[in-house]
Specification:
The structure holds two protein chains of two kinds. Chain A has helices spanning 6-27, 33-41, 65-78, 101-110, 143-153, 226-240, 251-258, 260-274, 283-291, 306-314, 316-325, 353-366, 389-398, 429-438, 442-448, 510-524, 531-538, 541-551, and strands spanning 45-47, 52-57, 62-64, 82-85, 90-93, 127-128, 168-171, 185-191, 197-203, 215-222, 326-328, 334-339, 350-352, 370-373, 379-385, 413-414, 453-456, 470-477, 480-487, 499-500, 505-506. Chain A is globular, with a radius of gyration of 23 Å. In chain A, strands 16, 17, 18, 19, 20 and 21 form a six-stranded mixed β-sheet that branches. In chain A, strands 1-2-5-4-13 form a five-stranded antiparallel β-sheet. A five-stranded antiparallel β-sheet of chain A has the order 3-14-15-12-11. By secondary structure, chain A is of the alpha+beta class. Chain A has 18 helices and 21 strands. The longest helix of chain A is centred in the N-terminal third of the chain and has 22 residues, at 6-27. Chain A folds into four domains: 6-110, Sulfite Reductase Hemoprotein, domain 2 (Alpha-Beta Complex), CATH 3.90.480.20; 134-290, Sulfite Reductase Hemoprotein, domain 1 (2-Layer Sandwich); 306-398, Sulfite Reductase Hemoprotein, domain 2 (Alpha-Beta Complex), CATH 3.90.480; 413-551, Sulfite Reductase Hemoprotein, domain 1, CATH 3.30.413. Chain B is of the alpha/beta class. Chain B contains five helices and seven strands. Chain B has helices at residues 39-52, 90-101, 119-125, 138-144, 162-165; strands spanning 3-5, 16-17, 34-38, 55-60, 78-83, 107-112, 129-132. In chain B, strand 6 (107-112), helix 3 (119-125) and strand 7 (129-132) form a beta-alpha-beta unit. The longest helix of chain B is centred in the first third of the chain and has 14 residues, at 39-52. The chains are: A alpha+beta, B alpha/beta. The interface between A and B is large, with 39 and 35 residues.
């Protein structure tokens, strides 16, 4: 993974010092709340329902075992012994005291980590596919480009006070695991007719109050033009994005109000100023960044060794975990393993100090000392020898981390909701738990197959409910918490927004609603048809009918 | 009265800022001075202003653009960009456009809600004088320019981004 050189380390130290001074001036009363607000947000610090919340960046999801151990230390020294993996490949701590944050950031800097631009109206952490570099269907590893974008966007002097937050995702695979199309800018790595690597550039996607799928601004730009194209889009947005209403300030609204064609013209005009200039990427820089993401020292191994096949035939629980959580790898004899943080009875994405240390140990023993965090709030060991899978499984089981449900109905994406978040209208964690308790039968879950179920506690949509095959949104009705249910959403290549079924439900009704949706699917599905494909084929009406009919 | 600094020290202000609500009727009272005219007044009354003042500059509010100034930059020794509120990011892009795209070499002054914690990035975008909000401590503000010793991206201070400077 990327390692800091002297420049990176110096700038990070300067940032830590800068925020230490800013915090001191705030505590001394020399900065008002309003003046301190963007400064603390751009260092990841929110003031939340119960205490401050610090969001730490995990650039494009990569963590080393050393970094995991530092996060474990931070969770025990500054928090209550746990953290929370977010839906944007970050980790949040809910209890650090304001005056301790500069010191906490200094600890992070020791392991090349930070909380820079994880909040505020600026360019946020760039996200990508958790299988980058190991996916079979990969066009090119997205991570070197993510790092290039990270550096360009970090401390970008022109874009620190944008109209609103700005999110960029990069996807290098045919299947999209990064929800690329619901980002302000989505980048798909592509190869053109001449065999050159470049990007398709989408703009104006996003969730929140007004969900929009991104639209193509450039069908193909050469990889060397990545930063000039990004800068052109950001420049248009910074100048023309609405600042009169925060709910209309995202890029998606500018694109809609300007019209795609007119927006593209503005971007092109801006791009003409920048093309060929100093921000044009060099092959030297791309190669430099690629060197940090070279394949680890793999062994020469045969695929699916005899030992693995024998155990799979013998141990049904292992076989279930293998079929759910293990993903094929482009290197023969290796596999990518998902460690699910969706165990029933635990808040989705929550991770304890002990688990962070365990992940570090597992990474060192099984996967070259690295893990990846996913936007679906799970953790990936990307480079596990197939012959070690059973050992890994047993170790996970000993640590209660063997939850076998990747991409199943109970692998729920869920925001912290009303239990923690000051913005929430309703709780989300108890809804996830109630659904998980309703669907706890392994064979039933296997029969239902792949379904994404996403829950947000408010319309800001951190739980990505719009793009869940089943989406649940908490709403406030005269002080009471209700839940709106949608179906048919997807964050994959064929990204689409879910359709709302109808009037919202009481919290206690939700498990039964999901059960009805599943029942309709199982009655109508064709052979091997996934939930989302059945919804696409038969439409929303049969689901709607069942859900409301049963309720009466 | 705002205290004025450049990136190194306090400096004295040779310009009189004319408020946006003003019309050419104020010219005679300020005759002979160096006047910073609001954009609209500059565009409508440049000739008369030129006859009254010893020098003319222009100031823009954050929502205004440079389209009508592009051909007249050579005659302007100063362009001031106003921050109605410190968190308005538009003047940063205006300054970049002036310096990088239009090659403007005169003074670019930040006026309005100008606070210590903006200064480092303002300098990177091409501002070179700063009319501080009256409660700001100028000595402290001068330290802000060295918050960061370099930048990843291309700036007005160094057009060459870090990736082209790394060995």
């Amino acid at each position: 993974m990327y390692r800091y050189d002297g420049y990176d380390a110096t700038m990070l130290q300067e940032r830590v010092s800068q925020f230490r001074e800013q915090t001191r001036r705030y505590i001394e009363g020399k900065l008002s709340d309003a003046e301190f607000l963007p400064l603390r947000l751009q260092n990841g610090l929110y003031v939340q329902r119960l205490a401050p919340m610090l969001r730490i960046a995990i650039p494009y999801g990569m963590l080393s075992s050393q970094q995991l151990r530092k996060l474990a230390f931070i969770s025990s020294h500054y928090d209550k012994g746990y953290g929370h993996f977010t839906t944007r490949q970050n980790i949040q701590f809910n209890w650090p005291a304001l005056e301790d944050v500069p010191e906490l950031l200094a600890h992070l800097a020791e392991v090349e980590m930070h909380a820079i631009q994880t909040s505020g109206n600026c360019i946020r952490n760039t996200t990508t596919d958790q299988y980058a570099g190991v996916a079979i269907d990969e066009i090119e590893d997205s991570r070197p480009y993510c790092e290039i974008i990270r550096q360009w966007s970090t401390f970008h002097p022109e874009f620190a006070y944008l109209p609103r937050k700005f999110k960029i995702a990069v996807c290098g695979t045919k299947e999209d695991h990064a929800a690329t199309q619901v980002h302000d800018i989505g980048l798909y790595l592509r190869k053109n007719d001449k065999g050159e690597i470049g990007f398709q550039v989408l703009a104006g996607g996003g969730l929140g109050r007004t969900p929009v799928i991104g639209q193509v601004v450039f069908d193909f730009i050469h990889r060397h033009e990545l930063l000039t194209a990004l800068e052109a889009i950001l420049r248009v947005y910074n100048r023309e994005g609405r600042r009169d209403n925060k709910y209309k300030a995202r890029l998606k609204i500018l694109v809609r109000e300007t019209g795609l064609d007119a927006f593209c013209e503005k971007v092109l005009a801006e791009w003409e100023q920048l093309r060929g200039g100093s921000l044009t990427l060099t092959e030297t820089e791309i190669e430099r960044c690629k060197r940090y993401f070279q394949a680890p020292p793999y062994k020469s191994l045969d695929a699916s060794p005899e030992s693995l096949r024998t155990i799979l035939a013998r141990d049904v629980l292992f076989a279930s975990w293998y079929s759910n959580n293990v993903t094929p790898h482009k290197r023969s004899g290796y596999a990518a393993v998902a460690i699910s943080f969706k165990k029933t009875g635990y808040a989705p994405g929550d991770v304890t100090e002990e688990q962070l240390n365990t992940l570090a140990d597992l990474a060192d023993r099984f996967s070259f000392g690295e893990v990846r965090v996913t936007h679906a709030q799970n953790v990936i060991l990307a480079d596990v020898e197939e012959s070690e899978l059973y050992n890994l499984y047993q170790q996970l089981a000993a640590d209660s981390l063997e939850t076998s449900n990747l991409n199943k109905l109970n692998d729920i994406i869920c925001c912290p909701g009303g239990d923690f978040c000051a913005l929430a209208n309703a709780k989300s964690i108890p809804i996830a738990e109630a659904i998980q308790r309703q669907f706890d039968d392994r064979e039933l879950l296997a029969d239902i197959g792949e379904v994404s179920l996403n829950i947000s506690g408010c319309m800001n949509a951190c739980g990505h409910h719009h793009v869940g095959n089943i989406g649940v949104l908490g709403v406030d009705k005269k002080g009471e918490e209700f839940y709106q249910v949608s179906i048919g959403g997807s964050s994959k290549r064929e990204a689409k927004l879910g359709k709302i079924l109808g009037p919202s439900f009481a919290q206690s009704d939700i498990p039964a609603v999901v059960e009805n949706l599943v029942a309709v699917y199982r009655e109508h599905r064709l052979d091997h048809e996934k939930f989302i494909d059945t919804v696409d084929r038969i439409g929303v009406d049969p689901f709607k009918k069942r859900v409301y009919e049963k309720e009466q | 009265m705002a205290i004025l600094i450049n990136t190194k020290e306090k400096i004295s202000d040779h310009w009189t800022l004319i408020q946006s609500a003003s019309g050419p009727e104020v010219f005679s009272a300020l005759r002979g001075r160096n006047a910073l005219l609001p954009l609209a007044l500059f565009l409508s009354d440049e000739e008369e202003a030129a006859s009254q003042f010893s020098a003319i500059g222009v100031w823009l509010d954050s929502h205004q653009n440079l389209d009508k100034l592009e051909n007249r930059l050579d005659s302007l020794p100063i362009i001031a960009l106003n921050f109605p509120v410190f968190s308005d990011g538009r003047p940063y892009s205006l300054a970049r456009r002036l310096r990088r795209d239009l090659g403007y070499t005169g003074e670019i002054r930040a006026i309005g809600d100008v606070l210590r914690d903006q200064l480092c990035f303002l300098k990177s975008c091409g501002f070179n004088s700063f009319a501080l909000r009256s409660d700001q401590e100028p000595e402290d503000c001068l330290k802000a320019f060295s918050d960061f010793s370099t930048s990843y991206t291309s700036t007005a201070v160094n057009d060459i981004p870090l990736f082209r400077r790394r060995g």
